[in-house]
Write a structure and sequence with these properties.
about 400 residues, alpha/beta, two-stranded antiparallel ribbon, globular
Length: about 400
């Protein structure tokens, strides 16, 4: 019986994950604009291979967290690198360091920063394709996957920052996080406040903390089954979200043909992240399929679903009994954002279903050292546009780089 339930569970996640993973396919076909200097081969390359292909220097660095997870982070430098300021870019849920490279030189943020002389480091959270190892636990065991974005903020980010600063001999670095990359930062800065002093400026793209106004009908529907998902995860040990990527690709060929514009994938994209077909470039499609989804724990998604239900930015809800054992109280503690003393700049999309402007506004009001909260100047800019929009360089990245430079002047 356990096997039957487990099979049903895995199939359900495969279907849901498929919709999330392949939402880009038809949406990209809706734009005829060709702006990225990339090719389909990029989707078959690893991050080091991808960076090398475009003439940049790349390094892989292994590190181990306090709780034994082995992470791999990537370093990117331009040929004219001159020992510049350090910047750490942190990806979102189901993603990897490839997020900052996919739209190619001249457009992707990692390359733009390297061209400006920055020492660019790309983080990889536990559980993704570059960080699937532990000192004692195999990823084939469910115990490997007993983490949410709380542990990413509590352990992965501090270990990554300490390694980078130790390796470069610098005292501080810039931080740029997209979506979960911002969530993890706020966890770290509130639970380990000593790390605020190691950050020149936190640049949060589509920041996710409070989620009470999350507008995605797809994820709102998912949260209705939160209790069931949590029970199944505890009973049957379903740890990894989206473990079988090849199956998803085969199913995608059937339900999301590239020759058809109006198919399920386009509609799911709009339900998930917001409607903005004019900013989609079809040339990026095979690259996205090659790098996303990169893997995560089911518990990460459950934790986000809890945020939607509770309308609080709080630690993982284990249930009343275990909460008392873990936290000493029935309700999970809220993260104390008053301890986030690092300078923060928030960038948000007016049409972002996942990081809704109302929730970003609430976050902005909770941060003691907020420098600015800035809407991207495009009415339909959505959650995915922060990484793949046709005009993301001009709408967003150039402003981010300019404000980073200003923060360095203020630091001096």
């Amino acid at each position: 019986m356990k096997q039957n339930f487990s099979s049903i569970w895995n199939l359900s996640w495969i279907v849901l994950a498929l919709l999330v993973a392949v939402t880009h396919r038809a949406a990209f076909a809706q734009s005829n604009k060709i702006g990225f200097q990339v090719d389909s081969e990029d989707g078959r390359l690893s991050v080091p291979e991808l960076v090398t292909k475009y003439g940049y220097a790349v390094e892989e660095h292994p590190l181990t967290t306090e709780d034994g997870y082995r992470l791999t982070i990537h370093r990117v430098q331009s040929p004219s690198y001159t020992n510049g300021t350090v910047v750490l870019l942190m990806h979102g849920l189901l993603c990897s360091s490839a997020d900052w490279l996919m739209i190619g030189p001249g457009n992707a943020l990692a390359y733009l920063l390297a061209d400006k002389g920055y020492d660019v480091w790309l983080g990889n959270a536990r559980g993704n394709r570059y960080s699937r190892h532990h000192d004692t636990i195999s990823p084939s065991r469910n115990t490997f996957w007993k983490f949410s974005w709380h542990e990413i903020g509590r352990y992965d980010l501090p270990a990554t920052i300490d390694y980078i600063l130790g390796h470069t001999g610098r005292q501080r670095l810039h931080y740029v996080g997209h979506s979960q990359g911002s969530t993890g930062f706020f966890v770290m800065a509130s639970t380990r406040p000593e790390y605020n002093d190691k950050v020149i400026q936190m640049n949060a793209l589509a920041p996710v903390a409070f989620m009470g106004h999350m507008k995605s009908p797809l994820l709102q529907y998912m949260t209705k089954f939160l209790n069931t998902l949590d029970i199944l995860m505890k009973m049957f040990g379903v740890g990894e979200f989206l473990p079988n990527k090849p199956i998803l690709h085969e199913i995608a060929k059937l339900i999301c043909p590239e020759s058809t514009v109006n198919n399920m994938c386009a509609n799911v994209l709009f339900l998930l992240a917001g409607h903005n077909p004019s900013q989609m470039d079809p040339t990026i499609l095979p690259i996205l399929f090659g790098h996303t989804p990169a893997g995560s724990a089911t518990k990460q998604l459950v934790h986000y679903a809890q945020e939607v239900r509770s309308n609080r930015f709080q630690m993982y809800d284990h249930g009343m009994l275990k909460n008392v054992l873990v936290y000493g109280k029935i309700q999970p503690p809220e993260y104390d954002l008053s301890k986030v003393t690092a300078p923060v700049v928030l960038y948000y999309g007016l049409n972002d279903f996942l990081a809704a402007p109302e929730d970003v506004s609430r976050l902005a009001g909770s941060l003691p050292n907020l420098r600015q909260s800035i809407p991207v100047n495009h009415a339909l800019f959505n959650h995915l546009d922060f990484l793949i929009a046709n005009d993301v360089r001009h709408l967003l990245y150039e402003q981010v780089i300019e404000r980073m430079a200003s923060a360095e002047v203020m630091m001096d």
